[in-house]
Amino acid sequence: MNYSAEHIVRALKAARQEKGLSQRELSAKAGLPQGHISKIENGAVDLKLSSLISLARILDLEVMPVPRKLVPAVQALARTGDTGGSSLTESARLAAKQVKRIEKTATRLLGTAPDKGELARLRRAARELAILPLGPKDLESLRLAAETLGKMEHGEVQAHDLREMAQGLERARNHLAHHVVDEPAQSSRPAYSLEDGEDDA
Question: Pairing with 86, which of 2, 9, 48, 116 sits 20 to 30 Å away (CA)?
Answer without folding.
Answer: 9
